Amino acid sequence: MIINIRSQASDEQRAQLLALLCRITGNARPITPTYIDGCEVIALDGSQIDMQAGALLAEQGAVETITRVKTPYKLVSRAFKPEGSTIIAGGISGGNAVTIRSSVGSTSSSPVIIAGPCAVENREQLLTTAQAVKAAGAVVLRGGAFKPRTSPYQFQGLGIEGLHLLAEARELTGLAVITEVMEPDMVETVAEYADILQIGSRNMQNFPLLLAAGHNSRGRPVMLKRGMAATIDEWLLAAEYIVSAGNPRVILCERGIRSFDQQTRNVLDLACVPLLHELTHLPVIVDPSHATGRRELVPTMSRAAIAAGADGLILEVHPDPNSALCDGRQSITAEQLRSIVRETQLIAEMIGGKKGLSWVA
Ligand code: PEP
Ligand code: MN
User: Fold this and answer.
1) Does the C-beta of 290 come closer than 6 Å to ligand 1?
2) For 171-221, what is each residue's pLDDT tens digit?
3) Which of 55, 136, 225, 309 could form a disulfide with 338 if both were Cys (CB 3.0 to 4.6 A apart)?
4) Which has the higher per-residue pLDDT, 105 or 32?
């Protein structure tokens, strides 16, 4: 259930509504209004609210409308917001603004290309890659400063120094910057430097981190990667944590799910792309690098992702993939990126408004 609060509601009417909700729900969780697109809303699990209580709520002076949303996720659902979300990132300290749009049903679209190294390794590597991916057509630079590595003996990233280098790369190229944040206490620091916060696969259900990203004081957009064994509902509920904490600027990123086959690093679930466009208004992008783990598969799966309706791609690019400190096997060169950008642009123009499932139904 989503309650839209009247913008002219008095403090008293608002307080009355909150008190009533606490009584009805038995204080099951704190009831906090959230601002979405300038409207104040309260989302809650309506299953505890019977007809009588629902009628009482509808009579409250603070209530504008009540929308019943059957899915467990509410604010991220298409039932709540039928039109796709447009997220504007960047535009800080020398960087360009970038628009990432859930473009189902639009007549033309330009997928957002995010590219860069898995990890920020040193100044020269990052600045060289940033200039090369920009020339190849990317609009956002990726690069991990804090790396979640499987082994404690692997390169862990440059930390704060990596954030400084990303800011320098933005000043040099104008590219917006995305980087991963791994812990709640680092959200504000990372948001100081990054245009978009990345929450990685291993942290998709790190609930304190999701809430901290939802509360980030600069309102930075968040790219939420799918957990390696997460169902689509779990993923959307993770996104719901961020949105219900007050940050509606969430981008979903499919990066493959783990299965039994050792040939590819993960299994790229492309069916989730048109399905998500049905279920949510959030933009959906695809990461063919982590999904496959093999650079020779990246161009084909990039084309397939855009044909499936992805709103963008995130790709690992390195000036010398074989010597990368992290994920070299799946990294491509900027030259290869250039072809992918050209090809995916053509595919996006060709499929135009035919994204999502509804046009088939
Ligand atoms: C990454 O983007 O470098 C990364 C660690 O990805 P994932 O969280 O999808 O494994
Ligand atoms: Mn990586």
Assistant:
1) yes
2) 999 999 999 999 999 999 999 999 999 999 999 999 999 999 999 999 999
3) 136
4) 32
Reported as a pLDDT band with limits 50, 70 and 90, residue 106 is low
**Domain check: are 204 and 267 in the same one?**
yes
Cα(351) to centroid of ligand 2, in Å?
29
Whether residue 152 sits in one domain with residue 62: no
Question: What is the per-residue pLDDT for 281?
Answer: 96
What pLDDT does residue 299 have? 98
Cβ of 225 closer than 6 Å to ligand 1, yes or no, is yes
Q: Best of 151, 155, 255 to mutate for ligand 1, by most ligand atoms within 8 A of CB? A: 255
Range of the domain at 204: 86-351
Cβ(148) to ligand 1 under 6 A? yes
Instruction: Say whether both 93 and 27 belong to one domain.
Output: no
Q: Closest Cα to atom 10, ligand 1: which residue?
A: 201
Cα–ligand 2 centroid distance for 262 (angstroms)? 18
Of 191, 328, 201, 182, nearest in space to 256 by CA: 201
Task: Give yes or no: residues 23 and 115 share one domain.
Answer: no
- Rounded percentage of the chain residues whose pLDDT exceeds 90: 84
In a domain, 123, yes or no: yes
164 and 204 assigned to the same domain: yes
Does residue 73 form part of some domain?
A: no
Say yes or no: 48 and 144 in one domain: no
In a domain, 335, yes or no: yes
Cβ 318 under 6 angstroms from ligand 1: no
Closest to 225 measured CA to CA, from 254, 256, 261: 254
As to burial, measured by CB atoms within 10 angstroms (0-12 exposed, 13-18 middle, 19+ buried), residue 30 is exposed
User: Do 32 and 62 share a domain, yes or no?
Assistant: yes
Provide the pLDDT confidence category of residue 241 given band limits of 50, 70 and 90: very high
Ligand 1 pocket, 118 CB below 6 A? Answer: yes
Looking at the predicted structure, is the pLDDT value of residue 359 above 50?
no
CA 334, CA 320: separation in Å to the nearest integer?
A: 10
Q: Which of 23, 74, 103, 54 is nearest to 240 (CA)?
A: 74
Instruction: Report the chain's terminal Cα–Cα distance, integer Å.
Output: 26
If asked whether residues 211 and 116 sit together in one domain, one would say yes
CB 141 within 8 A of CB 115: yes
